[in-house]
Specification:
Helices cover about 40% and strands about 25% of the residues. It has about 350 residues and is an alpha/beta fold. The model has no long low-confidence stretch (mean pLDDT about 90).
Amino acid sequence: MAYISKLNIVNFKSHSNFKVNFKKNNNIVVIGPNGSGKTNLIESLNFFSNSKSIRGEKLTNLIKLDSEGRANVGIEISSNRNTFFLEYNLSKNNEDVTKKFRVDDKAVKNLKSINEIIKFIWLSPPMEKIMYEGKSIKRKFIDKLIAQFDENFNFRLSEYKKYTTERLMLLKEKGDEKWLNILEKKISEAIFEIFINRRIFSKKISLLSKKKLLNFRSFEIIFNNIYENYLGNKTEALQIIENTLCKNRFIDETSKRNNFGINDDDIIIKDERKKISSDYLSTGEQKAILLSIILSNCHLYKDNNQEFIMLFDEISSHIDKSNLKKFFEEIDKFETQTWYTGNDKNLFQVIENKAFFIEIT
């Protein structure tokens, strides 16, 4: 079991100085009225996994206005493996923000060292738009889940972005064709690996929803593109993708964008009960599917012995009261610390005897 035993927040958003120590609690419940800083508190934790604002805010907005441009968050993590102290500092210089992360008082270059120790799984009300705002946001959501689970996938995404940007510059400048061929070969390899990893991950969590989420809504995530029939043969698929990039050189140069790439992967999230796309479900049903995706993802972590902590902002927004008890029972199976926010303490009566309550005014 992984859990936060100490939390110290200084000048992160609305929190000037917040300190709390915990015993080995599975459930932490943050109660308070709207605007009291509940979400800000648990967002300070999620920053250890993402290093970006969950709500798309500028990093300058994460630092409290009257704080002289500095914020600090530190947590002590205890797990089956060891105890670690994780920390990050945000420093503002005009509109630029410097991020510095530390593990046991040693500086680390990026989040990889932290993600090897602990991951944070986050669900907030704004994320519900994933289910109804189109395929692009669904793709990005699944990619983010895969990248958090598999660092190699994150590397592939970065590699793809780097090489495609370089290719467009080379096309614009009428650069060396030999180097262009090399770049397109690298891009093809990145595209293929991303396509394959999307399908492997989606199949895994889809199967987990059917096997383990008996009280929740099972789903199937399906990726598909025009080269689907070739993906079973890597050599053939790479050649076809490479040929497409080569043929598209003129149109890519003219339009100043890549006209074929990882965004050409279509995605459908299908409800297994009704056998239809989630696009045609009610808002409540869409929320249930999103919640099932998050829970299935957590089961994947558990099955692979990866440590994680869950963060559920305004849990009553995601699930109705009649199913809340079943939800808490499902969460207990993970045997890890889970944070909740809410403005009604009565919602958490079922877990009252095994929860630590933080009340913010």
